[in-house]
Structures are given as C-alpha cells and as structure tokens.
From TrEMBL:
Gene3D superfamilies: Histidine kinase-like ATPase, C-terminal domain. Residues 39-160 form the Histidine kinase/HSP90-like ATPase domain. Coiled coil: none annotated. It comes from Streptomyces tremellae. This is Histidine kinase/HSP90-like ATPase domain-containing protein. It comes from the Bacteria. InterPro entries: Anti-sigma-factor_SerPK, HATPase_C_sf, HATPase_dom.
Length: 167
C-alpha cells in the first residue's frame, strides 16, 4: 500500500497531525481510499473529525446530502465523542482512520486510554432518564459490524465500525 503523509499544524492548536492523502491498494481490482488524521482530544477536535469526515467522503463521491455520508459522519461523531470523553489523556490526541474499499467504509478511532474499554452489549443498557450513554448503541444500530482491540504500538485502544454503502 502506498501512503502519502503530510504534516501540518492545521486546526489543532499547534499540534502536529498526519494526513494520509489517498492510498491505492490492488486487491481483486478494488481501490482502497484512506484518510487518517490525529485530532486534539477536545470537543473541537471531535467536531473537526466529523467535518473532515464529511468532506473526505464527499471527495470520494459520497455526497454531503447522501445517506452514506450522513451515516458514516454519525458513526465518527459518536466514536470521536467517546474518545474525547472516555479516552482522553492530557496532552494526547486521538486518531481517526477512514478506509473506503469497494462498498464498505471502515472507521477506526484510536485513543490512548487502555483501561477504559467499551462495555459488553448486555452491560450497555443506559438509564432511560440519563443524558448520555447511548453512543455505542447508536453505532451498533448504524454499522453492520463494530468492535474494539488494544492498540498495537502504544497504550490505548481502537474502536472500529464498518458500514456497507446502500445498507
């Protein structure tokens, strides 16, 4: 896989970020498009992740007003909000990876908090009067599959979701 990294101080209060422009991978004549970026673990970073996801998907011919764009953005919004709220470590960023392969969008959000992992589905029943606690339930409803795994190269975890276009 060919990856083109650009380093920038764009929109993260001076924090260096890595932007992966576009990657092509030949696998049964499919082209994989990829976007990766680090964001500050703040509400502003989560909002920027959401906006750049919508922009990138639009550039990949999934228009802003399409159900596919809206669904993927909603998944990123929930996972990024969780990374900021539950995975934040002072001075550490979270990472978003979008990969479009064929008719599937894979979204990965990585944070640096290894000890706070998503609860099992049977343990995720929020209080009906609570103002929070429904993010992963929303992801579960929108995505065809989702899960998490420990981060390979450093402390933390990656929460991922896959969404089939048109599904």
């Amino acid at each position: 896989m060919s990856v083109d990294h650009h380093w920038s101080r764009y929109a993260t209060d001076g924090t260096l970020v890595s932007v992966t422009k576009q990657s092509t991978q030949r696998k049964e004549s499919q082209t994989a498009r990829e976007f990766a970026m680090r964001f500050s673990s703040t509400p502003r970073g989560a909002r920027l992740a959401r906006r750049l996801t919508a922009h990138r998907l639009n550039a990949w011919d999934l228009p802003y007003d399409s159900a596919a764009n809206d669904t993927a953005v909603a998944i990123v919004a929930e996972l990024a909000a969780n990374a900021v709220r539950h995975g934040r470590v002072l001075g550490r960023d979270f990472h978003v990876l979008l990969r479009l392969t064929g008719d599937t969008v894979r979204i990965e959000v990585t944070d640096t908090r290894a000890e706070r992992v998503p609860a099992a589905p049977e343990d995720r029943v929020p209080d009906p009067l609570a103002e929070s606690g429904r993010g992963l339930l929303i992801v579960e409803c929108l995505a065809g599959a989702w899960g998490w795994h420990p981060r390979q190269d450093a402390p933390g975890k990656t929460v991922w979701a896959e969404y089939a276009l048109g599904g």
